[in-house]
Amino acid sequence: MIRGKLHYQGVGGELKTLSLGLRTCCCLVDATIKNPYPPTSLPKKEYKEAALNNLKELNLPKLSLAAPWHGYELEHWPEEFAKDAMKIVNGNHYDAAESLSKLREKV
User: Fold this and answer.
1) Cα separation of 13 and 26, whole Å?
2) CA 18, 21, 22: angle at the middle one, nearest 5?
3) Which of 18-32, 40-54, 76-90 has the lowest mean pLDDT?
4) CB distance 45 to 25 below 8 Å
5) DSSP string covering 39-85, please?
6) Residue 80: enclosing H or E segment and its boundaries?
């Protein structure tokens, strides 16, 4: 049993407190990268531009974007993966799953 309070630093550096009750356990990990890192998980430029156009059409406040504001391919991306990605974008995720399932290897 753990009772008490856990103090930790939240988003933006603010100090937060987590009350711990009976049978409570927690582990907090700061897994953020503190130095420049390529945009490995950002959407492609075409999708981000479409989103910006949607915001503009809705008369929402303009965003101040920090570079890099969109993703790009960092390494070799096989053609079959690109085709499967387009299937997913077009709503055919079951077709993509079917072709990707053929790549499974029994461990």
Assistant:
1) 20
2) 150
3) 18-32
4) no
5) -TTSPBHHHHHHHHHHHHHTTPPPP-PPSS-SB---S---HHHHHHH
6) helix 79-89
Overall residue count recorded for the chain in this entry:
107
Which amino acid would we find at residue 105? E
Q: How many CB atoms lie within 10 A of CB 39?
A: 13
Distance CA 75, CA 84 (A): 17
Cross-strand partners of 6: 18
Q: How many C-beta atoms surround the C-beta of residue 44 within 10 A?
A: 14
Task: Output the six-digit token pair for 31.
Answer: 């897994």
Is the entire prediction scored with pTM above 0.90?
no
Distance CA 49, CA 57 (A): 12
CB 4 within 8 A of CB 22: no
